[in-house]
Amino acid sequence: MTLPINGLHHVTSLASDARANNGFFTRTLGLRRVKKTVNFDAPDVYHLYYGDAAGTPGSVMTYFPFPGIGKGRAGAGEVGETVFAVPEGSLGFWKERLGAGNVTESARFGETHLHFAGPDGDKFSLVETADGRDGWTGEVDADHALRGFRGATLRLRDGGATGELLRFMGYEAEETQGNLTRFRVPGGNGADIIDVETLPGAPAAQQGGGSVHHIAFSVADRAAQDEVRKAIADTGYQITPPIDRDYFWAVYFRTPGGVLFEVATDAPGFDRDESPAHLGEALKLPRQHEHLRKVLEGHLEPIGD
Fold first, then answer.
1. Tens of pLDDT along 160-205?
2. Angle 165-41-44 from CA coordinates, rounded to 5°
3. How far is CA 258 from CA 75, 124, 265, 297, in A?
4. Taking the C-alpha atoms of 127, 128, 131 and 134 in order, what is their torsion angle to the nearest 10 degrees?
5. What is the pLDDT of residues 114-150, one digit of tens each?
6. Stated pTM of the model
7. Which residues contact 44 (CB under 8 A, 6 or more apart)?
8. Which domains does the chain have, with CATH numbers?
9. Would you say 229 and 251 are in contact if contact means Cβ atoms under 8 Å apart?
10. Long-range pairs for 110-115 at CB < 8 Å and ≥24 separation?
11. Distance between CA 15 and CA 117 in Å, rounded?
12. What share of the chain in percent tops pLDDT 90?
């Protein structure tokens, strides 16, 4: 069985300050804010989405900024690093933009990774690719703009069961380097790599500011999602029913290593309630929270453009 998973859809993390988060992703990294909405389960907290011009699946970093949340503790059972793709020859630009003292470099599977941290210690890296995706050219020009995700690294005490799950989901194990094993979806959307880092003696991660809450995988539509959901459930995983997240439908399940996986549809997309020219400008509320608009607009801090 080959499941219709294309690669990543989005990555959702926790932050401590909405304004600082917005500034870092829109100005420092030059991503477009494609949606300003609220957490479905805690509507007094923003849900901010950043990505390319359209919020294409595979490009979208999203955040729940809980004011004053304590910092997360790195460890096993989490997404340890989110990796963005940048154009060939652009790492020097990014090293200067981020500040040489704020970055480190490493070699992985024949690639150079430029590692840096977000406002809450969030772990990211950049890697040059030759893929044809376009970045958002607001603060950063087209020759250097982030082109979406390349993938992510899972930090696990034992990568065996999660590796089997990734294979079941359509990923292929490509190479092992030390305690890292690379998995890739053949013919994926560019955001199609998962590296599994095995750390047998690592303490358990503790979620907080800078932690990834969940990682989402892309499927084209609800029919494809239903196929994946049934296959995952048939293997014995506890997986949720489809949940309407306004801009996609989502199902969730917990992996053997403790990481929360989501499978999200590409449709309907972020232009369902805003024109493509004005994505992320207005506060958009889920239907069930629209009656709270006045209260929420008075409560949520302004975050700027």
1. 999 999 999 999 999 999 999 999 999 999 999 999 999 999 999 9
2. 135
3. 11, 20, 23, 35
4. 90
5. 999 999 999 999 999 998 899 999 999 999 999 999 9
6. 0.98
7. 38, 296, 299, 300
8. 8-299 (3.10.180.10)
9. yes
10. 113/83, 115/81
11. 13
12. 98
Q: 146 and 133 in contact (C-beta within 8 Å)?
A: no
The contacts of residue 122 (CB under 8 Å, 6+ apart) are 13, 15, 82, 210, 211
The two structure tokens encoding residue 245: 């997240």
pLDDT at position 85, please? 98
E strands present in the chain: 8-15, 32-38, 46-51, 60-65, 78-87, 104-108, 111-117, 123-129, 149-156, 172-177, 180-184, 193-198, 212-219, 243-244, 248-254, 260-268
Instruction: Give Cα 271 to chain centroid, integer Å.
Output: 19
CA 50 to chain centre: 10
Would you tell me how many other CB atoms lie within 10 Å of the CB of residue 222?
Answer: 14
CA angle 270, 276, 280 (to 5 degrees): 60
- How far apart are alpha carbons 114 and 112 in whole angstroms? 7
243: number of Cβ within 10 Å: 13
